[in-house]
Amino acid sequence: MSKIGNYVVGLQEQEFFIECPECKDTDQHGKVTSEEFKWTGDMYEPFETWVDCNNCNGLGEIERDFDDDEGNSCGQ
Ligand SMILES: [Zn+2]
After folding, report:
1. Which phi and psi (to 5°) does residue 75 adopt?
2. Tens-digit pLDDT profile for residues 11-31
3. Of 13, 23, 34, which is closest to residue 60 (Cα–Cα)?
4. CB 30, CB 60: distance < 8 Å
5. Around ion ligand 1, which residues have CB less than 5 A away?
6. Ligand 1 mean position to 60 CA, how many Å?
7. pLDDT tens, position by position, 59-73
8. How far is ligand 1, taken at its centre, from the CA of residue 64, in Å?
9. How far apart are CA 31 and CA 54, in angstroms?
10. Distance between alpha carbon 19 and the CA centroid of its chain, in Å?
């Protein structure tokens, strides 16, 4: 009995997180491209660099927003 209960809880926990829309399309999980200026000797030039995604803090997933689902979870 308790095994089944734990299994259900595990499934529910996964649903609390969704892929972060800001960085899910990048190759680097949880990171986004940004421009960084570096001194090349006589001028600053922009380089593309990877930084932690601000939206998910580099986790690649964000907590699901359940506000919209409120009142829609009757039954069971
Ligand atoms: Zn992100």
Report:
1. 90, 170
2. 555 568 899 999 999 988 899
3. 23
4. yes
5. 20, 22-23, 53, 55-56
6. 5
7. 999 988 766 555 555
8. 13
9. 8
10. 5
Instruction: Identify the sign of the CA torsion 51, 52, 53, 55.
Output: negative
Residue given tokens 């699901």 in the structure block:
64
Token pair 């001194």 in the structure block, residue:
39
Which pLDDT belongs to residue 56? Answer: 94
- Cα distances (Å, whole numbers) of residue 60 to 7, 10, 20, 49, 69: 24, 19, 5, 17, 23
Q: What is the dihedral of CA 57, 24, 26, 10, to 10 degrees?
A: 80
Contacts of 55 (CB under 8 A, 6+ apart): 20, 21, 22, 23, 62
Q: What is the whole-number distance in angstroms between the Cα of residue 33 and the centre of ligand 1? A: 11
